[in-house]
Specification:
This protein has about 325 residues and is an alpha/beta fold. The protein is about 40% helix and about 20% strand. It has twelve helices and twelve strands. It has helices at about 50-65, 80-90, 110-125, 140-145, 150-165, 180-185, 190-200, 210-220, 245-260, 285-290, 290-300, 305-310; strands spanning about 1-10, 10-20, 25-30, 35-40, 45, 70-75, 100-105, 130-135, 175, 270-275, 280-285, 315-320. A four-stranded parallel sheet has the order 8-7-6-9, with helices on both faces. α1 crosses α8 and α5 (about 150-165) packs parallel to α7. The protein is globular and about 60 Å long. The protein starts with a strand and ends in a 15-residue tail after the last strand.
C-alpha cells in the first residue's frame, strides 16, 4: 500500500492509504499543531519553532540599526550564539549600509574548550564577521577581590572594549547586543545586568526563557543548542576567593580532568568550585553520584591525589550540581 499526507485545513492533516493503482483504501484525519500559510508563490507549514524564530527575528530587527555598527557580545554559549544568528539574519534581510560583528572577549576566565566551541559556531554562520579581543578585567581590583561586584567589573570592561571598536571610526549610533534572557533577568545575583544597562545594551532574548532559546537554536541548526550552560571560570569561585589567574587555572584544569575521566556529554552539568580554606567541590549531575561505577572510576584514576598533589587544593569532595551553587555564599579568609 501507498500513503499520502495532505493538508486539509488549518490544524488538520489527512492520511490516505492507497492500493498500488491508487484506489483509496482508508482515510483518516488527524489534528496537528500546524498552520497553513498562503502566499502568492507557495503554501508552507508554520510550526511552533518557525513561529518562535519569526517572532524573535521581528523583535531583533526592531532593535538593530541597519545603517550603523551592530556588535554582539559573544561567548559561544547558546544564548549569545542565537543572538548572533538572529542579528546576522535580520540584518542581511534588510537594505542595510551598516555592519554586524560578533566579538568574543578572551581572558583567563574563558575556558579553552569554550573558545573552541565559539569559533566552530561562528564559522557555521555563513558570512558572519567574527573577531576576538583580549579583555583586561584581570587587572581590576574590584574583579580580583570577587566580593560581589566582579561580574559588574568584568562586563564593564567588556562593553567598554566593544564600544572602543566602533569609536575609532566615529560611529556614535552603534548598537551593542548581549544574550541576556528572561531567566537571567529574574536572578538578582547577576550584577552584570547593571553594566549592560549602563551601556544601553540591547537584549533580543530578554523576554525569552531558556527552553525556548534552545528550541530556536536547534531549529536554526546551531550545534550548541543542547550544551550545558558554561559561565565564566570566575563564577566557580566562592565570594572572597580572589579571581587570580592561578585560581582560574586550577578550576579549568580540574574541570578538564573530570570531563575526560567521565567522558561527559555536552549536555552534562559539571563544575569545579573553589571554596574557603582552598577546598574544591566537584559538582556533577545526580546520575553520576548515584552510581558505584563512577565512584570506583574516580578512585582508580587517583581523584584526590590529582586535585591535592597536582592542582594544589587542600581537599576535594563531590556533591550534586546546582546552578549558581555559590552565588550567595560569603567566605572568610578565602584569599
Amino acid at each position: 500500500p501507498l500513503s499520502r499526507l495532505q493538508i486539509v485545513g488549518n490544524g488538520y492533516l489527512s492520511l490516505s492509504t492507497m492500493s498500488a493503482n491508487r484506489d483509496v483504501l482508508a482515510e483518516e484525519n488527524y489534528q496537528a499543531n500546524v498552520t497553513v500559510t498562503k502566499t502568492s508563490k507557495n503554501i508552507g507549514i508554520l510550526t511552533p519553532e518557525t513561529e518562535l524564530v519569526d517572532n524573535l527575528l521581528r523583535h531583533t530587527t526592531s532593535l538593530l540599526n541597519p545603517n550603523s555598527s551592530n556588535i554582539i557580545a559573544y561567548s559561544g554559549g547558546v544564548d549569545s550564539s542565537l543572538v548572533v544568528k538572529l542579528v546576522h539574519t535580520a540584518f542581511t534581510s534588510l537594505e542595510a549600509h551598516g555592519s554586524v560583528r560578533a566579538v568574543l572577549g578572551i581572558s583567563n576566565a574563558v575556558p579553552t574548550t569554550q573558545v573552541d566551541l565559539a569559533r566552530r559556531v561562528a564559522r557555521s554562520i555563513e558570512g558572519l564577521d567574527y573577531i576576538e579581543i583580549s579583555t583586561d578585567e584581570g587587572t581590576d581590583p574590584i574583579y580580583l577581590a570577587n566580593e560581589g561586584e566582579a561580574c559588574f567589573a568584568c562586563k564593564t570592561h567588556l562593553y567598554s572594549a566593544l564600544k572602543a571598536i566602533v569609536s575609532t571610526v566615529g560611529d556614535n549610533d552603534s548598537v551593542l547586543f548581549n544574550g541576556t534572557n528572561s531567566d537571567d533577568r529574574s536572578d538578582t545575583s547577576r550584577v552584570g545586568l547593571v553594566a549592560a544597562s549602563n551601556f544601553s545594551v540591547a537584549s533580543p532574548l530578554s523576554f525569552t526563557p531558556k527552553s525556548d532559546i534552545r528550541r530556536a537554536a536547534k531549529h536554526l541548526g546551531l550545534e550548541n543548542w543542547n550544551h550545558a550552560a558554561s559561565p565564566c571560570l570566575r563564577s566557580r569561585l566562592a565570594f572572597g576567593i580572589e579571581a587570580t589567574g592561578k585560581h582560574l587555572s586550577m578550576v579549568e584544569r580540574g574541570e578538564n580532568w573530570i570531563r575526560n575521566v567521565f567522558d561527559l556529554n555536552v549536555s552534562d552539568n559539571m563544575r569545579v568550585r573553589i571554596l574557603a580554606r582552598n577546598r574544591a567541590a566537584v559538582e556533577l549531575d545526580d546520575r553520576f553520584l548515584q552510581s558505584n561505577h563512577y565512584a570506583e572510576l574516580l578512585h582508580n584514576k587517583g581523584f584526590e591525589d590529582f586535585f591535592v598533589k597536582n592542582l594544589g587544593f587542600n581537599g576535594v569532595f563531590l556533591r550534586a550540581f546546582k546552578s549558581g551553587g555559590i552565588a550567595a555564599m560569603k567566605v572568610e579568609g578565602g584569599k
